[in-house]
């Protein structure tokens, strides 16, 4: 890990363990160019890769072709309306309404550690384990200064990027667009890897051919969304899990985003990522600053698997802050799919008693406990206990659950308001709405304007009051609809474009306040399942509900896409009843357990109605969870086979950091007649260690298991699964 200023060629070089990133300063004007990002190289001068010695020449030598230079120069942060016709990274309107900006080099600092980003989640580190390059930039004509920030980490191949912008002029300016990063590079037949989906089928892996023009992923839904994800990767044509070039870009933000790849006339690529410019605008008075969220970049020439493990380690070591990160989570049972809205004390206590007998550790009371909530048509915002359902009050219920021997958790949706609620009747202006327009309802609810302090305080204080009233140790924070009708009753006309970003900042402020006031609370974020599963939320909660679809087979694709970037310990995963409530599929109880094991693990069912066979299987599943949880939580993840690619079976492996053990999960989705066993080559083992599969006598070198593989016999039927535990001898 090192950042160096190479004075002889006026360039900066960032070195991680295995990669180098080179930035060059060009011309007397101070154009900031991207020279190289790839495998680690010596401190040679590689600024020639920016091709500034070719036509068109730099502006100081050939001013008549300034636009040709700007339209081909591999910039570190593209300007707008000044001659570069590719995607801009920034757009600012001046006092006259004109748009045009070019940020030029003014100086730099190399510092130990990593500064925080004001108001935003971001990776963190102490001064011993990170370094940061800050490049000062300026547009003198506009009176705008900025700082491009780059951070690297000890024992990681990740680089983070962000920018902050300051109005140093005497005039108001309007920031209409700000990407967090821009990178230009030659195309080398890369494919674009994205994670697409919908409700109940989030984050499915998809490859796209990169054609000329722009191809992107984005959200304008006020959250990172079910449909697309704030991540893109450029993947070499022959790249596999263990070989080939990968460039990954992940946005640490929970609101509207744009991630885009543009291929131009010269077959070069421009990658940009940041807040989506649609419905965005920020008014900056003199002295005001705007901070962009950060992008986490990872390059590797060792395939997708190495990228995955780089992200996993970075997020475990430098993003997730919860005390639960390094310890087992309580095995919980959530009553949602067991009862939906139809429950009372006795029903919950019946579930708790049976759950305790099975070895479950926590009962979570989901939607329906507050106000006059009988279905999803009322009462959001009325956060007081419905004592018709919860007789004797919440404190008594929690004490009764604790007396049974279970911890207690609770569900909230603090950002929402129902039209049929006391809160809405008292404060209709607290809902986000466009005056005079018929509002767009979703799930018959509106979104609270938490950008207003009084609204934010009301919502937070409601949650805090409930948490203080009883021994509540877990909160599921949900958001079941996306933003529309973007308008605030309290923002001036020229600040309405600030609403969505201010909303995300307000959400972060509320959750920061929550974990500060209740440091021992286990917080799990959720948004109609996995619509807000992003690095921004992991800064506040160590786990996120992965999807409302708990079907074990659908979860294979969802969890494969999610684990491409995020550690297994972050994925909320439960065993549910069959036929599955979302897809109607029937899968074996042990397969449901084995798939949920690659996550936080819990139950989403009415345990009192299970067959005796399934009920008796729960203690064994829990014993398996306890046996392997540390390995799954902290180990290195390897994708061995993908059901979404081969259509028949899924296989993944977790290896301990010391390579002393490994767990292989194999799921046979579809059986085939007249077929022999399947050969799986293992990964991540120590070549020289001797291993055996638990329950068998044969031993093998790690090198043999990696190169020759193991045979997994065909299982009897569809949707069958098995675990193989590899132990060092």
From TrEMBL:
Its Enzyme Commission number(s) read 3.2.1.22
Question: What GO molecular functions are on record for this protein?
Answer: alpha-galactosidase activity
Q: Does the keyword Hydrolase apply?
A: yes
Reply yes or no: does the keyword Hydrolase apply: yes
Q: Name one GO biological process term.
A: carbohydrate catabolic process
Report which superkingdom the organism of origin falls in.
Answer: Bacteria
Q: Where is the active site?
A: 478, 548
This protein is called: Alpha-galactosidase
What species is given as this protein's source? Answer: Pseudobutyrivibrio ruminis
